[in-house]
Specification:
Layout: E1 2-7, H1 12-22, E2 28-30, E3 39-46, E4 49-56, E5 59-67, H2 74-93, H3 107-116, H4 121-131, H5 136-153, E6 160-167, E7 169-170, E8 182-183, H6 184-187, H7 191-209, E9 213-221, H8 229-243, E10 250-256, H9 263-271, E11 276-279, H10 286-291, H11 298-310, E12 316-322, H12 329-342, E13 346-351, H13 359-362, H14 372-388, E14 392-397, E15 408-412, H15 419-426, E16 430-434, E17 439-443, E18 450-454, H16 459-464, H17 466-476
Parallel strand pairs: 1-2, 1-3, 6-9, 6-16, 7-8, 9-10, 10-11, 11-12, 12-13
Antiparallel strand pairs: 3-4, 4-5, 13-15, 14-15, 17-18
Helix pairs in contact: 1-2, 3-5, 4-5, 7-8, 7-17, 8-9, 12-14
């Protein structure tokens, strides 16, 4: 348990996220008094001095401060708050997090802004390394990703939109999962009813989308391939009927878990125009698969991958997670050897995030977790193999509660980028969303103003209140063909 106290400012989120970098997966509470029993971090910005103090059992054990000149902008105040806490806790713990003061989810967005202002590559790198203490290697990765994203986003038009369709069912719930996902066994008798409700919502979205240019369709979850072959075909037929996917559109289905995929499902996806799929092993270590609750084997992954190739899928992504409980760098090396032998077109390397709604968070004490130093080695192994496979980084994001405060990176062969992923992260395009727990996001191209329209998460509520979900969109989406 960690307490924190603020003086002279109200930047609660900035303080907590910076403290979290050094003391992950604990409970954090704001306090007005220094705790006589627990650790307390105090952050102060007053009278020309920014400082951070560390207290244990009521006694100050360390402090770090620096002067500043008035007037102080809000952006600079946030930087000073983070800088003083970083300096204090880095000295206290011996840790020097590679992302420095950056705690946000989209590092590349910062660099894209600097590039738009006319800054050179060198100026962007200096900004990250000197002002925000980002390690040179991470700064260079950020610049490379930002330039790849910039190239892909340059094709955006004001009328472009994307569509997300959510299938919130899974055969089992993985140890680390915090997504809106429900056990298929419990809900299998309501899946068709769920599809009927979602089709009604999709019909409204298709009508709304007539004034726009649909660029990407993404069917995610959950696990969309947990649907039966008949149910999957119903869904794909409905998408074809309402949105008429074309060859130049990116149309993705998260095939996800190999234990839900059949050759017929792969064939159906190809027949109905799906041109990008994601087969997600997370690891190619048999013992880890059992530990995290995946009911498939490494051989199942290989089989499904080659079946996908046989039916003609030529843009296959594979998701991996580094830092899974009990895994070692050698396990990661073995996984990357297996992945290299398959030669996927896309590999997304995730760092494990311990989410509040996951079983892992509830059972955290039962597992040996990867340290930041070991995870950095794992990331370097994955990056090295990606380079050997001819894959370039094109997409990156970060999450709260990530082990080691690291990053998720998408690598791909030239021309095989997952453009929808970039649109989600960089928030430059409106994304219409259907399904339980789905969130529609509108972006005003002129102002970059973002608005969201949320669906309820519960399956029962979604089915029973589908007309309300449609009405929410009718009220929340800009009307008249303009965003």
């Amino acid at each position: 348990m960690i307490y924190y106290r603020l003086r002279g400012h109200e930047l609660q989120n900035d303080v907590q996220t910076m403290v979290q970098v050094f003391y992950p997966n604990l409970h954090y509470y704001r306090t007005e008094e220094i705790s006589a029993e627990e650790t307390t971090v105090e952050s102060s910005v007053e009278k020309g001095i920014a400082s951070a103090m560390l207290y244990r059992r009521g006694e100050q054990v360390s402090a770090w401060s620096m002067p500043y000149a008035e007037p102080l902008t809000e952006k600079e105040k946030k930087r000073l708050v983070k800088l003083t806490i970083f300096a204090l806790l880095s000295r206290e713990t011996g840790m020097y997090p590679r992302w420095g003061l950056l705690t946000g989810v989209r590092p590349a967005k910062i660099v894209n802004t600097l590039l738009s202002e006319g800054k050179s590559d060198e100026e962007c790198l200096r900004y990250l390394t000197e002002k925000y203490l980002v390690a040179q290697q991470k700064a260079e990765l950020t610049l490379k990703v930002a330039k790849a994203e910039r190239r892909l986003l340059a094709g955006n038009e004001k009328t472009d939109i994307s569509l997300y369709i959510g299938i919130p069912f899974c055969p089992t719930r993985c140890l680390y999962c915090s997504f809106t996902a429900y056990p298929l066994k419990q809900y299998e008798k309501r899946v068709d009813e769920y599809l009927d409700a979602m089709f009604k919502e999709m019909e409204y979205l298709a009508e709304y989308a007539q004034n726009f240019h649909l660029k990407n369709i993404y069917i995610g979850g959950g696990t969309p391939t947990s649907l039966t072959e008949e149910q999957l075909e119903r869904l794909l037929q409905k998408v074809q009927e309402l949105f008429a996917p074309t060859e130049d559109m990116e149309y993705t289905v998260e095939a996800g878990r190999p234990d839900t995929i059949t050759k017929e499902k792969l064939r159906l996806m190809k027949v109905y125009g799906v041109n990008r799929i994601s087969i997600n092993p997370q690891t190619m270590n048999e013992e880890t698969l059992k530990r995290i609750g995946r009911r498939h084997t490494v051989e199942d992954i290989r089989r499904v991958f080659w079946e996908a190739r046989e039916v003609g899928h030529d843009n296959i992504n594979m998701d991996l997670i580094l830092g899974l409980p009990e895994e070692t760098p050698e396990d990661v090396r073995q996984t990357m050897e297996e992945i290299m032998a398959l030669e996927p077109d896309n590999v997304t390397v995730h760092t494990l995030a311990v989410k509040r709604a996951s079983r892992l968070k509830e059972q955290f004490d039962l597992y040996t977790m990867t340290t930041a130093e070991v995870l950095e080695e794992m990331l370097e192994i994955a990056a090295d193999y990606a380079e050997r496979m001819g894959l370039e980084p094109y997409y990156m994001y970060r999450q709260k509660n990530m082990v080691g405060n690291f990053e998720n990176v998408g690598y791909c062969k030239p021309g095989k980028e997952g453009v929808y992923n970039i649109q989600i992260m960089e928030e430059k395009q409106t994304i219409l969303a259907a399904g339980a727990g789905a969130s529609t996001k509108t972006v005003d191209p002129a102002t970059d103003r973002i608005e969201r329209v949320f669906n309820v998460k519960s399956i029962e509520d979604y089915i029973g209140r589908i007309d309300e979900m449609i009405e929410r969109k009718r009220q929340g989406l800009p009307q008249g063909g303009k965003l």
